[in-house]
Each structure stands twice: as structure tokens, then as C-alpha cells.
Amino acid sequence: MVEAPSAQSSLSTASSASVTSCLGRAIACTPIQTSRLRYTKTTRLIRQTNLHPAVVAGSLKGEDAPVMRAFLPVVVISAMLILACSGHPEPLSEAATGANLLLISLDTTRADRLGPYGYAAAETPALDRLAKSGVVFERCFSPAPITLPAHSSLMTGTDPFVHGVRDNGSFRLHESNVTLAEALQQAGYRTAAEVAAFVLNREFGLDQGFDRYEDTSAVADTVLNRTSASRRGDSVADAAIERLREFSADARPFFLFVHFFDPHAPYDPPGDWSTNRAHPYDGEIAYTDAQVGRILKALERLGLAENTVVAVTADHGEGLGEHDEDTHTVFLYDSTLRVPLIISAPGRLPGGLRVPGDTRLIDVAPTLLDLLGLDPLERAQGTSLLARMSRREGSATPVYGESFYPRFGYGYSQLRSWRHGGLKYIHAPTPELYDLQRDPGETVNLAEERPQDVARLRSELFSWILDAPRPPDSDHAIRVLDDESRAKLRALGYAANSAQPITDEVALFDPEGDDPKDHVIDLRIAARVLGLIREEDWGAAEALVRRLVSLNPKSAIAHSNLATLLTNRGGSVEEAVVHFERAAELVPTSDRWAALAAALERNGERERALNVYARATSTPPVFASAHVAFARALRDVGRLEDAAKQYSLGIERDSDNRDARLGLGRTRLIQRRPDEALAAFRSWVGAAPEDAEGHRGVGEAMLQKGEAAAALPHLRAAVELAPDNPATHLGVCVAAEAKGDLAVARAACSRALELTSSLGDERRAQGIRARLQRMRE
Ligand SMILES: [Zn+2]
Questions:
Q1: Are the beta carbons of 661 and 651 closer than 8 angstroms?
Q2: 198: CA distance to ligand 1 center in Å?
Q3: N or C: which end of the chain has fewer CB within 10 A?
Q4: Contact 204, 213 (CB under 8 A)
Q5: Distance 403 CA to ligand 1 centre (A)
């Protein structure tokens, strides 16, 4: 992770310093330029003309010259302004900073379903407009057809085996990665993200570098719903527009990342968007385009459009039945790997330009940083596409792809792909080779006919992995297996043929196990199970997942889904324990161990549950929820100090975690350590002043210290925030009684008694009655 930048730093790179100081001098040396308005206009003038030197130079030499010449007068004015006030010539590149950046990711969006990519039935007016004013990259590819790995690549400019995130859910982008957001934050940008799906929630590490990262935490509840939690496009767009409004009030540049999830299955576009379309998927895309349009309009309305670079791309495509795949994640065909990439930068890039040739999602961050005049990311494998834009030529850039989902989810082999020189090789147990010029649909496998091409591409693929930057200290399940788990995996045949340690990417190079394409029926059943779970048709989901478990007992996902379904439907706890255990052994993740521990608790096996919780909290990546669950279990058996430690670790992991913050305070109260309780509750009140429980905690801690008078206002605040909670009234009663204010105490206790009785909590009601009786005596 890069060092945290100082909050006050403006554009602090060396190159921008000269611009800002020059501006200061421009104002000082020109008497009439004293008004704030004039200053703003001057700033904008400089910013408008931040043409990147590579684009200017390349374009003026090449075919883009007529387009670019239109901008020349402004360039000259800006350059003259700089020269005039600085007193010595400075190249224009010194001014190439300061534009805002809006990066939009359309989840699950195939390029060939959009207007700018020639889809006749497309209804994508916003993207059509953007394409006209910007640059369209005709063939851009994701390195993985899976949301979190692909977004991690988008943000870091590296392939999944370098940034370390190989799948959703069980991986977390490690802090040692440097992201686009961190680079921009470091350069003085205000940064914000609005993401629409649970799989990108902050606990998975993509929040690095964002001052503000809004995800689906607020809409998450049960585990089943939590993992499919998403935000509709309109709510994402509303929030994004609100961020733009805030940004427009401040002169510092901003980076806003917006993620739409609507095109992802299930396809259920709202209202009119669901009718009159060839496929509901098109309706979702049309709906999403309308939301993108709203954001772009807001950009104009707020006067930000002329100084904002807009980039639109996607994390992956969608199978839509091609190659026996309805959705995405398993196979590496263009149906799921090809994504749109459109970059618009008014005054900086020519409009309507189309760049042929292969480009990669890992090139996006390097390109955007280059465009903004900032240094490239240190470890990026992707490269800036600016020169390609000015030359308009294709490129022989090879493109890497992978999916480890078949391995982690189903116990089949992982897949890798290598696209180079018009050919595509898929490194699978049964290798595949496609001639993309003649067979863009990848339908005729030429691997047996052309063994030399297979050997050449395979060796290039191997070199790409061998020569890549070393992965960071990864935070994921496979790299950190303990010996015991590793032995279990080997016993299961999981890594049986691997003589080298499984931590080594090179050892993971060759395919291992069954080829996923030999199991398309199982994969379709598995996809259907996920669909039924999303539709909350638990009965049908359970029946199907049982079939899947018997078809493929090595599928961790099948075992985990069966166990979760049993738990949520009140099925056999013992059976759930068996399947959670099997899933955790096949592919150990913190979530799976935590789910097993909770099932063991329900089954009355407390000691075993504690042992398994210990595993859940030591199998990275660990989420705050695992620490909280472990803490609660420890508290239940009276191990209060251990519980407090786990709550603290939960807070360390996620400082916004309410259960961890309140749990720590409550534990300190039980331990009768009021000073520590007070500190815990006070800090929570600071973070969430609207939460009654924080105020009640502060009051109760003060009561425990014997400070009844000081406690009373806090307890009253709790009553005001939660008037229907008997505990808040009881708190006021106890404090008022201790203070000697018996009338107030009696009234509060009476109200607490009413509320408690209405909840049917007779044990507690008796206690309150006894207290009232004592006060009367
Ligand atoms: Zn996705």
C-alpha cells in the first residue's frame, strides 16, 4: 500500500507544482487578474489545454492532425501564459495534470451488445454519444471472467496471478498492491467509489485509495442474501450524481469510480426496460445506459464535463449460451472475455477515433494515469495506450486470461488462455487453439492440427508467468494453506500430482484434474442452483444441489450451498455440519470455517465450535464478521478477555463494524471495566451519533463508575433515539434512582415495564417490577 497522503495536499507532483506556482505568479504579475472569477477561468483554461504531449506530437504527425489542429489556438495561449509568467520555457507536459476522472464499470457487459460496437438492436444512446466524443478501443479483453479478479486487474494494471485475487469471495486484494485510486489519492485527488455488488464490498480490498467507498453493506442481511446483494442502477447513479455535486464545490480534482451490476443475471430490468427486446439482457444494458446517461448529463450540468476524463469499460462479458455457458466465470472464450473500452477526454483526445487491435483491461489504469500526466503504477504489466491512439494501428500485444473458478468451485482444472498474432490458445487438460481471423466464434479447435503453434503459444504463456512481477504477500486461501490443510487437499487428490509446493504459480501452470468442458452438464446444474438461490426457491435449489453433490463430490461450492440451504431452511444441523466441513476441507476459506463453527454451535458442540472459529479467524482473508462471531461464542462461555481481543481484531479489520464496536463495550461492562467500556462506546458515538446503543453504553459505563448525574443525559439521548427499546428506559430509571430523582426513575421504569411486558419477556419484567416495588418502599 502506498503511504497515506496528507489530507491537505493539492496536486503535489513535481510536474504540477510548476503549474500552480506559475498560476500564482500569473495573478501577481497581471493587475486585472485579481478577481476569484478570473482565477477560476484561468485555472480552467490551463486545464482545458492539458493535451498530452504524446497525443499532440503523435497526432500532428499522423492522420489525426486535422482534428487536433482545432485545439491548437488554446494550446498556444496556455503555453504562452506559462512561458510569460515563468520566465523560462517549459514543455507543455508540465501542465498535463489536473483533469478529473470518472471511471465507469458495467458488470457483465459484452462489447458486441453495445451500439458503439455495431450491435444493431442496441439501445445505448449515452454510450453512442460518448463514443462519438471519445476513443473506442475495438478489441479489449479482461484477464478473468470473474468480477473481483477482473476489477482488481482494472485497478492495478496487473494480471490476477500478480495481484493475487483469483476468485470472488475467498480472496482479498492485498494492501501491498498499488491501485489507480491510491495513485490518484497520492496525487491530491479526492476519491470516491459507488459499487453495486457484494463481491466488490470493501472487505475484499478494492477500497484501497478511496476516501469514500460505498458498497452493498447497507443492503446485506442473511448470508444467502448477502452474497447476492446488489444495488439497482438508479440508486448507484443517484449516489454518483450526489458525489459529483460535492466534488463540484471544491477546486481539487476528483476520481469517481462507478460500478453498475444490472446486466448481471438474473435479467430483470425494471418497468418498460423489460419489454420489446430480443433478450432481457439487452433491456438491462439499455437501462444501465440510461443511468450512465444521467451521470454524464450531471457532469455537464455541474460544469465538470470539459475537465473530466470519462472511461467506460466492463469486468467481463456473458456467455448467453455460447460454448455451453449461459453466464460467465468458467470458460475463457471471447463471449466472456471481450469487454468495451471507451475513453473520452474533451480537449485532450480526438472524438470518434477507433483504435483497432487487441488491448487489455490491464492497460486501462496505465492509460488513464498517462492521460492525467501522472507516473505509471510501479508494478503494472499493462501499458499506456496513448501512443496507440495517435497511431491508430493494431498491435501485437499478447493477451493473458485465466479462470481458477472451475478449480476452487468444482475441483476441476483451472484454465489459462493466451491470445497472440491472430491465434488463441487455451491451456486446458484438452488444449484448444483457434484461428481468430477465420473463426472469431472459436468453434473449430485446431490444437491437434497445429501442434507447433500450440507449443509456441504455450511457451509464450509460460514465459509471461515466469517473467511477471512477483505476487504480493497474498491474502488468499491457496497461498496460505497450513500443512494440515495441504495434507488433506493432497489426500483428496487436489494437488496429488504436484511435487512442488502449491504456493508456486509455476507449479500451478499446468492444468490438473478434469477439463471443465467435459462437465458442461454439471456446470449448467450448478449455475441453475445459483439462479434458484437468487430466486429464493429453496426447495428446488436443495433438490438440485443434492444431485450435484452426488455427481461431483469434489465441488466445494455444492457442499457449501447444500449446507447453507439446510441451515436456512431448518434442515438437519448434523447434515449441515458434514457439508460445511467438506467444503472447508476442499477449499478452506474463513467464511466456510465460520459457517461450520456456527453450525457446530447450533448442534451443541461448543468446544469444537471454538476450535473451528479459531481457524476461521486465522485463514486469510479474515473478515470482521468472523472475529465478531468468534467473540460472541467466547463471551457465551465466559472467556471475556479472549472475546474482547476478538472484538478488537474485528474493529481493526473494519472500523465501521457496529457489532464489533458495541460488543467490545458490552464485554468491558460485563468485566466491570467501565473506563475501557466508556472509551469503546464513546468512539462509537463519535462514528454513529444516531445509534441509541452507543449512547446507552456511554450512560451505563458512567453509571458503573458511580457517575449517575453525568450518565443521565446520555441515557436520555438513547431514549430519544430509540423510544421503543425498554433497555433505554431502564437505563434512565437506574440513573435517576441513583441520583435520587425518584419521580423520574419511577416513570422511566414503568415505561420500561410496559415495553418489556409487551415483548413477553417475563423474566426481565419481574426484575423491573421488583425495582419499582423497592422504590415505592
Ligand atoms: Zn462481474
A1: yes
A2: 11
A3: C
A4: no
A5: 13
Distance 105 CA to ligand 1 centre (A): 9
Which residue bears the cell 443511468?
Answer: 291
How many angstroms separate the alpha carbon of residue 756 from the centre of ligand 1?
47
Give the Cα separation of 119 and 340 in Å (integer): 12
Nearby residues of 246 by Cβ (< 8 Å), 6 or more positions away: none
The burial class, CB within 10 Å (0-12 / 13-18 / 19+), for 371 is buried
196 in Cβ contact with 218 (< 8 Å) = no
Task: Kindly give the distance from the C-alpha atom of residue 381 to the centroid of ligand 1, in angstroms, as a whole number.
Answer: 22
Q: From CA 373, how far away is CA 697, in angstroms rounded?
A: 50
Specify the residue for cell string 483554461: 45
Evaluated on CA atoms 200, 202, 206, 210, the torsion sign reads: positive
How would residue 201 be classed by pLDDT, with cut points 50, 70 and 90? Answer: confident
CB pairs under 8 A, 24+ apart, for 617-621?
617/590, 617/646, 617/649, 619/477, 619/480, 619/588, 619/589, 619/590, 619/593, 620/172, 620/475, 620/476, 620/477, 620/480, 620/590, 621/170, 621/171, 621/172, 621/203, 621/204, 621/205, 621/475, 621/476, 621/590
Interval between CA 593 and ligand 1 midpoint (Å): 25
Three cell numbers at 372? Answer: 492525467
**Cα of 404 from ligand 1 centre, angstroms:** 15
Kindly report, residue by residue over 546-594, the tens digit of the pLDDT. 999 998 898 888 999 999 899 888 889 999 999 999 998 888 888 889 9
Is the peptide bond preceding residue 451 cis, with omega within 30 degrees of 0?
A: no
Q: What's the gap in Å between 317 CA and the centre of ligand 1?
A: 8
Taking the centre of ligand 1 as the mean of its atom positions, its distance from the CA of residue 182, in whole angstroms, is 22
Determine the distance separating the centroid of ligand 1 and the alpha carbon of 231, expressed in angstroms. 14
Distance 194 CA to ligand 1 centre (A): 15
Distance 146 CA to ligand 1 centre (A): 5
- Centroid of ligand 1 to alpha carbon of 106 (angstroms): 8
What's the 108 CA to ligand 1 centre distance in angstroms?
5
- Give 314 Cα–ligand 1 centroid separation in angstroms: 8
d(CA 534, CA 6): 43
If we measure between CA atoms, which residue out of 619, 581, 591, 555 comes closest to residue 407? 555
Q: How close is the Cα of 62 to the center of ligand 1, in Å?
A: 38
pLDDT tens for each residue of 391-449: 666 678 999 999 999 988 888 999 999 999 999 999 999 999 999 999 999 999 999 99
CB-based burial of residue 570 (10 Å sphere; 0-12 exposed, 13-18 middle, 19+ buried)? exposed
CA 445 to ligand 1 center in whole angstroms: 27
- Cα of 341 vs centre of ligand 1, distance in Å, is 15
Give, as residue ranges, everything with CB less than 5 Å from ion ligand 1.
107, 147, 315
Antiparallel, parallel or unpaired: β 341-344 and 190-194: unpaired
Cell 494515469 identifies what position? 369
Residue in the block written with cell 462461555? 637
Alpha-carbon gap, residue 260 to 213, rounded angstroms? 14
CA 510 / ligand 1 centre spacing (Å): 26
Mean pLDDT check: name the lowest of 251-260, 534-543, 668-677. 534-543
